[in-house]
DNA sequence: TGGGGTTAT
DNA sequence: ATAACCC
């Protein structure tokens, strides 16, 4: 698919190119089996990005949906859709009305309950963790994996004559020529092969397709993963990194530069990546603070030293519901009970215990559409201990706490208009590691008395009716 | 704009 | 507790 050349291709910004002497030094370091620690440019990172994830999960749940234009609906939005639908003009986050207008044959499924998506998402992360334990989740459908060590191991197993037969898997960004004398090219090619194995495993074991991008840092891996879309992969060789970042038409497209920062940059006259690269660092620091300024200016050069941080189990569990209007306390209480019931089931299955509970609201307002308010408090220890122990009613004390938080935020004696309620359980701590024979063991009811009853469903109401 | 998540201040 | 970021 790609030709193996000896000549690196010409490109913009070649002033920064690594010269042959430097490449040889690094090649020698590689042959000596030295992992050049901390040298960010020698890492091998893959970004894995599932194709229209929710729609894929829905098509697995109901195979009759395959081949039809499918949209996943939350409230009045089509949050994602499959490629059949995209071909017919449906876009992500499109209004249901607009989508139906564009595409009357569009099949819609409700995707407000994230349970199956979340479960599949963690199956993907766990599969990737089998390749390397350094896996960082980004949302439900993206993962970064640090392949540096794995690549190093494979490199050591290669004989030097095998190296000349090394080939890339998938696309090479910018059609750049591969130079087998450049150790970083070798490492990235091996990275591309591992990425292909990951995508194969995802398809064979979970039935999911996705894209992958392989590069020397997270920023570049993420940017390059989207170059060939759907179900393809791309590797970025260092000499083309400037081409990649210059391909962005606006700074807002740079991961790490969000809505707010983009607005502030615009006020400074910065709109392109080149604008940001050449802007005075001192002035930028004054405007955005030293931390943001230095970080995003490095990003504009394609530099990103942030590590792939293993996500591990989630830091929090939350459930939210949005609506047109909630204006009474009873109404709010009912919705809060529903959210909490789902959360208790989730936290029960997780096994860890939350020590903090938070209630978040969004008030109706014509202007400030994004603003939320929250109140949180510790969960009393006697309530924590009842969590996951089954028949005790843990709903009542927690709903009481949540309603206190609610009244702390909302003056219920005055008219109010809410458009969102959210409950979050966080500050998760691992189970009592109480061992037999210790004081803790006999003071832990779930261990010394009843047997561990696996999963139990929490009912929202009429808990006194159970059994 | 949905229904989630994370980290920094 | 909020604000920023990510999907």
Automatic annotation (TrEMBL):
Localization annotation: Nucleus
Similarity section: Belongs to the DNA polymerase type-Y family.
Stretches of the chain forming a coiled coil according to its record: none
Keyword Nuclease among UniProt keywords: no
Regions of compositional bias (Polar residues) in chain numbering: 306-317
EC number: 2.7.7.7
Organism the protein comes from: Neovison vison
MF terms (GO), sorted A to Z: damaged DNA binding; DNA-directed DNA polymerase activity; metal ion binding
Cofactor(s) needed: Mg(2+); Mn(2+)
The protein's assembly and partners: Interacts with POLH. Interacts with REV1. Interacts with ubiquitin.
Any one GO cellular component localisation term in the record: cytoplasmic ribonucleoprotein granule
Region (Disordered): 1-38, 302-322
Function: Error-prone DNA polymerase specifically involved in DNA repair. Plays an important role in translesion synthesis, where the normal high-fidelity DNA polymerases cannot proceed and DNA synthesis stalls. Favors Hoogsteen base-pairing in the active site. Inserts the correct base with high-fidelity opposite an adenosine template. Exhibits low fidelity and efficiency opposite a thymidine template, where it will preferentially insert guanosine. May play a role in hypermutation of immunoglobulin genes. Forms a Schiff base with 5'-deoxyribose phosphate at abasic sites, but may not have lyase activity.
Protein name per the record: DNA polymerase iota
One BP annotation, GO: DNA repair
Domain UmuC as annotated: residue spans: 45-258
Keyword Membrane: no
Main location: nucleus
Catalytic activity, reaction form: DNA(n) + a 2'-deoxyribonucleoside 5'-triphosphate = DNA(n+1) + diphosphate
